[in-house]
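Reading a protein record of the kind used here takes only a little practice. The integers have meaning only within a learned vocabulary of local backbone shapes. With that in mind, consider the following protein and its fold in token form:
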Amino acid sequence: MKSFIHEDFLLGNKTAVHLYHQYAEGQPIIDFHCHLSPSMIADDRQFENLTRAWLEGDHYKWRAMRTNGINEKFCTGNGSDQEKFMKWAETVPFTIGNPLYHWTHLELARYFNLFELLSPATAKGIYDKANALLQTKDYSTRSMMKKMNVKIVCTTDDPADNLEYHKKLKDFEIKILPAWRPDNVIKTEDPAKFKAYIEKLGKAGGKEIMSFGDLIETLDERHKFFHEMGARLSDHGLDRFYYDSFTSAEADKIFKKLLKGENLSYEESEKYKTAVMTELCRMNHKRRWTQQFHVGAMRNNNARMFGQMGPDTGWDSIGVPQDALKISKFLSSLDESEQLSKTILYNINPADNELMITMAGNFNDGSTPVKVQYGAAWWFLDQKNGMEKHLKDLASLGLLSRFAGMVTDSRSFLSYPRHEYFRRIVCNYIGEEVEKGLIPDEDELLKPIIEGVSYKNAKEYFGF
């Protein structure tokens, strides 16, 4: 009987099979947005077992387990590693239809050459076989990345980070580059936490931050340091785009109010966030970086569990659709002063697909291909239906052939088959369109599309 994961997995037509195996399968990986730990790469961590490699920090799996009635003890609690794995194996059969089912079996196949379906009946055998392999040097973090043909990785790093692990990775054959993620500078909802962060940022920059001017000067110095360390991308994880007119005096007054521990009004918060984001984007333009905006997530919904566990533990969801007017005004304000850098827009609400694609088109000025472009299907949209809709919408309203392609957006070193998953879905979509007669069956047209969205477009767009 054919195994679930086979050479033509997800490829539903002859053209798709040809395109994938001929043009996509062998392409290297540029993972220009992820949450991998630089310290684990620098230390070349050897995972103790499959639970540590697979479930540690993976809030996608934790959400599924909780939904399946698994006690928190076996998600993030004090259950043993083997108990946690067995509870995950108990959950996997119930994830059919969820991308976790596909990812799980792709990862077992590609890393461990294991093709059995994970279930309570097969769990012990799979766990033991994978654990034995994980003890070998071929399964350290660096070795696993090389095994997946990864060439460049951009991690996610706070401006206050000293990037010590990136320094240690300078000679690693895979480029591990920092990416600037200054979200903490606009988290004004808790003035005490905000002040503590500003003090931390000041120490990193060697300057006491007492005014808005000091803040921007320190951020610019840190931005310069990141640039010297190889950073060429910023990333901004926002609930939404902000826009309100502001003056430097207003921004300074609001910043000092925060340092005093006072809460901001809605208008003050909007002005401050607009001012900071404007200055950050000007820095990106000055150093010719690409800026990414991941918008629309409604985070930390479960106040009780957030209080116990903190962020990024699985209590987030899709937020409301974006305000098109504010996106337009913010991007236009940068464009008007000729300070709009290369930009990638990502949405988490599928209702925003067409908005984001057409908004990006407003700011493409012919200076470079897709200067402003639509990013990969993100987070809750990072699944077969979400990717197919993404591809159809982008093809209809933008230039699919110029799309920079997939990212893992993951904390897991076992997540690289997500690039294969994406490539197979792309090839199947293009193949279907060819066989319907909607796209010419000409390899000289199809080859650049598949190679581009798999690897080459990202390499050219970011200039790595």
